[in-house]
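Sequence, please.
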């Protein structure tokens, strides 16, 4: 009988130790930094015109990764990747808010057809905005588009396999 009681006590202690050990492992898992979820932050596309307008599109992700594709009249033709810094991403986010881009109209257009347009898609803090800008956009928008272009187009881009225009390296 004493042996059975000893066995039960030993079993309870072993179970409690295993539970505490498992609990410690779970706490360690919680304390480890969670991976950053990559999501779309911004897409900017410049469309063609009847002249020699630069035609390209890039997407910036929340992690700073940029996917760029140059179509016509640009230095970087084809598909490229780049990595923006945290401060560059923060600068873009701050400018989205300070220029109140999310509260602008969805379309700035004209009857003129021989001019390029810019398509801007933003996803910031759960708010989404899509702006078609061909003519008559407010200065805040054109300045923001130029700022983002300056950051991306002057970044260190690495050529990747062309995905959009069918060219192969």
């Amino acid at each position: 009988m004493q042996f059975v009681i000893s066995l039960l006590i030993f079993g309870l202690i072993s179970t409690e130790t295993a539970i505490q050990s498992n609990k410690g492992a779970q706490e360690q898992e919680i304390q480890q930094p969670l991976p950053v979820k990559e999501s779309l932050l911004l897409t900017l596309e410049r469309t063609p015109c009847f002249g020699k307008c630069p035609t390209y599109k890039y997407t910036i992700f929340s992690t700073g990764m940029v996917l760029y594709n140059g179509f016509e009249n640009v230095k970087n033709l084809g598909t490229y990747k780049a990595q923006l810094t945290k401060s560059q991403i923060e600068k873009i986010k701050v400018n989205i808010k300070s220029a109140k881009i999310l509260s602008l109209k969805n379309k700035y257009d004209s009857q003129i057809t021989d001019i390029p347009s810019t398509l801007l898609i933003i996803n910031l803090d759960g708010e989404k905005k899509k702006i078609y800008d061909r003519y008559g956009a407010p200065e805040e928008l054109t300045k923001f588009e130029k700022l983002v272009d300056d950051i991306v187009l002057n970044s260190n881009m690495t050529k990747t396999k062309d995905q959009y225009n069918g060219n192969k390296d």
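The chain has two domains: 1-34, 40-159.
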